[in-house]
Amino acid sequence: MAWNTNLRWRLPLACLLLQVAMVVLFGVFVRYDPDADASWWEEKKRRNISSDLENEFYYRYPSFQDVHVMVFVGFGFLMTFLQRYGFGALGFNFLLAAFGIQWALLMQGWFHHLDLQGRYILLGIENLINADFCVASVCVAFGAVLGKVSPIQLLIMTLFQVTLFTVNEYILLNILEVKDAGGSMTIHTFGAYFGLTVTYILYRHNLEQSKQRQSSVYHSDLFAMIGTLFLWMYWPSFNSAVSYHGDAQHRAAINTYCSLAASVLTSVALSSALHKKGKLDMVHIQNATLAGGVGVGTAAEMMLMPYGALIVGFFCGSISTLGFVFLTPFLESRLRIQDTCGIHNLHGIPGVLGGIVGAVTVAFASPDIYAQPGFSKDVQTSRTQGKFQVFGLLLSLAMALMGGIIVGLILRLPFWGQAADENCFEDEVYWEVPEENSAGHVTEDPTLKPPALLIPSGAPALSAVLVP
Amino acid sequence: MAWNTNLRWRLPLACLLLQVAMVVLFGVFVRYDPDADASWWEEKKRRNISSDLENEFYYRYPSFQDVHVMVFVGFGFLMTFLQRYGFGALGFNFLLAAFGIQWALLMQGWFHHLDLQGRYILLGIENLINADFCVASVCVAFGAVLGKVSPIQLLIMTLFQVTLFTVNEYILLNILEVKDAGGSMTIHTFGAYFGLTVTYILYRHNLEQSKQRQSSVYHSDLFAMIGTLFLWMYWPSFNSAVSYHGDAQHRAAINTYCSLAASVLTSVALSSALHKKGKLDMVHIQNATLAGGVGVGTAAEMMLMPYGALIVGFFCGSISTLGFVFLTPFLESRLRIQDTCGIHNLHGIPGVLGGIVGAVTVAFASPDIYAQPGFSKDVQTSRTQGKFQVFGLLLSLAMALMGGIIVGLILRLPFWGQAADENCFEDEVYWEVPEENSAGHVTEDPTLKPPALLIPSGAPALSAVLVP
Amino acid sequence: MAWNTNLRWRLPLACLLLQVAMVVLFGVFVRYDPDADASWWEEKKRRNISSDLENEFYYRYPSFQDVHVMVFVGFGFLMTFLQRYGFGALGFNFLLAAFGIQWALLMQGWFHHLDLQGRYILLGIENLINADFCVASVCVAFGAVLGKVSPIQLLIMTLFQVTLFTVNEYILLNILEVKDAGGSMTIHTFGAYFGLTVTYILYRHNLEQSKQRQSSVYHSDLFAMIGTLFLWMYWPSFNSAVSYHGDAQHRAAINTYCSLAASVLTSVALSSALHKKGKLDMVHIQNATLAGGVGVGTAAEMMLMPYGALIVGFFCGSISTLGFVFLTPFLESRLRIQDTCGIHNLHGIPGVLGGIVGAVTVAFASPDIYAQPGFSKDVQTSRTQGKFQVFGLLLSLAMALMGGIIVGLILRLPFWGQAADENCFEDEVYWEVPEENSAGHVTEDPTLKPPALLIPSGAPALSAVLVP
C-alpha cells in the first residue's frame, strides 16, 4: 500500500478551512463572560462585590496555566520517547490541540455557556480550562495512533472526538448529574477507548517492518521524562481546576498529590519485579507513575480521605505496570490493537477504576458530609448517585467504542496521506529533518559524509516506497 | 580578522564592575514598596483593607512567574536550535537577563516608581514583571545576533538597550499615554528593529564559512521546542501580567489564548504549502506559531473580541511563516541583515501589526465600552487615542533604528572578544565543551577514539585561527 | 568488591512495604485540614469569613506548584549532567521524593499539625509545601552520592533523613524559635552536610575507574540546564512559600529575585577568570548561579533590603564558583569526600552563609521594623534572637554530621545492591537501557550493527563483574 504522503495541498487546505470556520463561528457566537468584559464593574455592583479578586480569573488562572502545560508540554514530550518521531509527537500534538481548543470552546459553549437569551457563548477562564480538558482526551487518543497517522487524520479525529466528547460530557454532567471533576470517565476512559477503537480499525498488518523505530533511544527517553514530570507535578491542578471554590479545590489537590506519590512506588516495585534481572524499565517510569492521577480523577474533590487516595494510587500504579508487561503484547498479538504509547494501561484501566472509585465514594458518603447549605447533591440519596456514576462510566465506554468505530472507518479512507507500514514512526515522512552526522554536528571528515553512513535510516526505505 | 577571543580578564571585569555598580545604586536608591514592606500593616489601615489578599502580590505573582519562565527558559531554549551553540544560547541569555533585570529595575524605577519625595525607588511585584518585560526585548534582539557576538558585547548591548527601552517606554506610556500592556510596540517592535539594526551594522562578510553550524540537528530542534512551548503556553500571562485588575487581566488572557491557537494552524498550513513536498519545517513550528502572541500584545486587554483575536493570530501566523521563507533570505542577501533566529518574522512584522491592531481597536472603540468610573482614558476621544497609538509605534521604530546604529557602532570596536567569521555559532570559542564520542558517551573501542573522528568539528578550524 | 546488583526482589519488597506502611499510617493518623474539609463552610462561619478566597489554598497554591517543580524537575534534571546516568538521576530522584513526601507528611504532621485532641494530623496546602521542602533536603544529599548508591540505599537514606530533618526542624522552629522560611539552615546546610558525611563514610577507593563516566557530554549539559533554570526561576516561590501572608511573602520573593540575579554575574565572572583561556564552565553555570537562592533562604522574608540581597548573591555566586574550582578537588583528594554534584559548593557553604546572614539581619533589626500588632517576635530582643539563629545553624550542622555517620554506616552494609567502583555513574546497572547506534537511531548498515561498535560502553565491564 503506497499512499501518497505528500500533503502539500491537503494539509494547508484543511488547516485554513478549519481556521476560517473558527473565525466565522467565533464571530457569530462568541463574546466575553461578564468577568472578562468591560462591563465587569457593573457585574461587581450586581453581585455586590467590592474586590476585583472575586473575579473568577483569580480563583482559576494558576490552575489553568498548569493544565495548559500538561496538554502542550506534558502530552507532547511524553510522546517524544520514540527515537525518530519527536517532531511528530510535539508538532502534531501542538497542531491538534491548537485546533481542538477552539472547536471545544464552541462545542462546550453551545452546550454549557450560552447567555440567557441563548444567543452568545460567554467566554471566561473556566471555558479555557474545559477546552483544555476536552483536548486532553484527544491527546490521550493520539497516544494510541502515534506514528501511524497523518496530521490530516489527526485533525479529522480531533474534529469528531471533540464533538463526541462534548455530547458525552453533557449527558454525564447535565442529564445524569454525575460528578467527574478530574475526568476519569469523560476524559481518560472516553479518550482511551476511543483511541484504542480507532487504532483497532486502522490495524496495520505489516507494522513489524517499522518495529525498529518503535522504541526509544537514550536521549529520547530523557525528553519523554520532561513530559512525565510536568504531567505528574501539575496533575493536582488538573483534578482541582474546575472544582467548587474553597475546600473542594483544596481537597482535590491534596488527594491527587497523595495518589500520585503512591503510584510512583508501586510502579517502581512492579517494574523491577517483572524484569528478569530486576532492572527498571523507563516505559513504566514514564507512564505507570501517572496512573494515580487518572485513578482519582472522579473522586479527588470528594471526601476520599488521604489514605483512600494512597490506596487508589497503590493499585493504579501496580495495575498499570502489569498492563504494560502483560496486556499490551496480548492486545497487539491477539486483539490486533496496536497501542503505541500503551494508553490502555495509563488511561484506559485507571480511568475505569477511577470511575468506579468515584461511584463507591459517592455511594458510601455519609449524608452529613456535604451538608453545607446550597450543596447541589442534597436531593438525591448517595446510593442513587452512586448508580448514576456507574451509568456515566458505562455510557462513556459505549460512546467511545461507537465513536471510535465511525471515526476509524472515516480515517481508513485512502486519501488522508497516511504513511506505509514500513515508514511508520518516522519523522522524515512529514517533516524536513536536518541531516546530521554521528557526533550530532556536521563533521569535516570526508569518510563520514552521507553516502553510506549518514543517510537517516528511514530514507532508503522511503524512497523505495515512494518512487515507484 | 583574527580577534582575540580569550576573555579571561575582560569578561570577569565587566561582570564584576556592573554587579558592584548595581549593589551601590540599589543601596542608594532602592527600597521596598509598601506592599512588600514591614509597614504593610499600616498600609492596610491606610487603604482600609482587611484582607492580606489585597496585597498586589496575590494579583500578579502567578503571572510574574510565568513571564519569568518565558524570559529564561522560553527565550533560552528557543535559541538552542543551533547544533553547536546550546551553551551560548542558554548561558548568555541567562547572563544578559540576570544583568538586565537589575538595570531595568533601576531605570524603570527612576522613571516610574519613585516615592513621593522622589528619593527612593519602591520595589514591588509589578516592578519585577516590568523588568522581565524590558529584558524580553533584549532577548528578542539577542536572537538577531545569536552566535556572532561575545558575552561582553551582549552585556554592553543590554546596558544600552535597557536604557533606551525605558526612555521609549516612558514617552509612550506616560507622555503619549499609549496603551501597550503586552508590549507589541515597546517590547517586540522596539526589540526586533533594534536587534536587526545592530546585526546590520555588525555585518559579517564571510559568515558562509560558518554556514554548516548555522542549522539545527535532530536533538537541538527538540530542545528548541521546550522554549517554543513554554513561550506559547505562558504568553497569556505575559499579555495580561500588568493589565488592570479584574476584567482587563481576564480578557487579555483569553484574547491571547485565542490568537495563539489560530497562529498555530496558519503556520502549519503555510509551512506545508511552501515546501515542494509538502513537508513541515521545524523553524516555522518553533517560531511562527508564536506570532499570534506578539500580534495581540497591544490589543489583548482591549475589547478586541475573541474572533478579533483569532483574526490577528490567523494573519500573524501566516505572515510570519511567509517571512521565514521569502523575507529572511532576501534580507540577508540584499540588505545584508544576518538575522540568526529570524526575529524579523517573529517579533518585527507581528509587532508592527500588533501596534496597528491596537490603534485600530482603540480608534473604533465605542465610547461606552470602557465607561466604568475612573477609567483613565475618558478624556481623549477614541480617534485621537488611535492616532497617538500610531505615533507610539512610529516612535518605537525610530528609537530602535537610532539606538541600534549607535550600539552597533560601539559593538564593532575590535576589542570585545568577538569570534572570527569562520568560528561563529560554535560553543568552543567561549565554553569549555566536553569531548564526546559518537554514541554520546565514552567508548571502549579504540578504533573510535578521538584522533581522526571525534574531535569536535570546530576545533581544527579554531586552532588554525587562534594559534598564529 | 562484586556486590549483587540484581534488585529483583529487594527493591520491589522495599517499595511495597514502605507504601503499605504509608497507607496504614495515613489511615490511622491523617485527615483533612478544615480548609480542605467538607466542613469548610462551618469554618468560614467560625472565622467570620465571607469569601472562599480566604481559604489558605489561594494564598499558597501557586507557590506550592513552583516548589513542586523545583523538587521533581529542578533537582531531577540538574543531576542529568552525567553522560550515562540520566535515567538514574531522574528516576531515583522521582522515587525518593515520592516516598519522602509521604513520610514527611507524617513526620512533620506529628510534630506540627496535630488537631486539638492530638489525635489526627490535619492536611492542608502548607503541609504539602513543607513536605516538599523536607524532601528538597534529601535531594540535596542525593547530589553527593549520585551515581554511587542503589535505589534501596536511597530509600533508606530518605527514611532516616526525613526523620532527622523533622526533629532538627522542630527544635529550630519550635524550641529555639528560629526564623528560617527558605531553609538555609534546615534544608540546605542540613541536607548538604548530611550528604557529605554519608558520602565520606561510603568512600570508594577505586572510583577513578568510573572517572570517564563522571563527566558530561554536550547534550547532557543541556538537559541539566532545564533543572538549573527551573530551580533559578522558581526559587523566589521557594523562599516565600511559607512566609506570613502579605508583605513577608512579597518581600521574600523580591529579595530572592535580586540575590539570584547577582549570583549569575559573579559566577560567570569567576568561572571565566579561573579558566586559563577565559572559557566558561557549564558546571559553574549550572550550579553556582543558584547559590544566591540558598544564601538568602533564612533572610529573604526579613527586611534585608534589595541591596542586601544583591550583596548576598554577589558573595554566594563567587564563593560557590571558587569552591568548585579549588575546594571540591581538595575534599576528594585529601578528605576523601567524593561529592558527585559538588553540593558543598551549592548548598553547604551558601547554606552556612545564609544562616549567618539571617542571624546578622535579625540581630541588627531595629525594634520598630516588625512592630505590627501580633508579630511573634516582640518578646525577645533582636540580639538574643540573633544568637538563637546561630545556635540553630550549629545544631543543624551537628545533626547533619551525627545523622550522616549513622546513616552512612547503615548504607555500608553489603546487601543493598550497590554497584562496584568501576560501574558507578552507569544506568546499565539498574536500568533497561535502549540499544542505540551512533546517529541516535537504528541503522540499516550492517557494518555498524552491535557486536564490536554498538554495545554501550559499560556493558563489557559490567558482565565481567557480574558473571563470575
TrEMBL record, chains A, B, C:
It is found in: Apical cell membrane. Residues 54-418 form the Ammonium transporter AmtB-like domain. Keywords: Ammonia transport, Cell membrane, Glycoprotein, Membrane, Transmembrane, Transmembrane helix, Transport. It comes from the Eukaryota. One of its GO terms (biological process) is ammonium homeostasis. The chain crosses the membrane at residues 12-32, 63-82, 89-108, 128-147, 154-173, 185-203, 215-234, 254-273, 285-304, 310-331, 352-370, 390-411. Pfam families: Ammonium_transp (PF00909). One of its GO terms (molecular function) is ammonium channel activity. It catalyses: NH4(+)(in) = NH4(+)(out); methylamine(out) = methylamine(in); CO2(out) = CO2(in). GO terms for cellular component: apical plasma membrane; basolateral plasma membrane. It is a multi-pass membrane protein. InterPro entries: Ammonium/urea_transptr (IPR029020), NH4_transpt_AmtB-like_dom (IPR024041), RhesusRHD (IPR002229). Homotrimer. Ammonium transporter involved in the maintenance of acid-base homeostasis. Transports ammonium and its related derivative methylammonium across the plasma membrane of epithelial cells likely contributing to renal transepithelial ammonia transport and ammonia metabolism. Postulated to primarily mediate an electroneutral bidirectional transport of NH3 ammonia species according to a mechanism that implies interaction of an NH4(+) ion with acidic residues of the pore entry followed by dissociation of NH4(+) into NH3 and H(+). Belongs to the ammonium transporter (TC 2.A.49) family. Rh subfamily. PANTHER family: AMMONIUM TRANSPORTER, AMMONIUM TRANSPORTER RH TYPE C. This is Ammonium transporter Rh type C. It comes from Heterocephalus glaber.
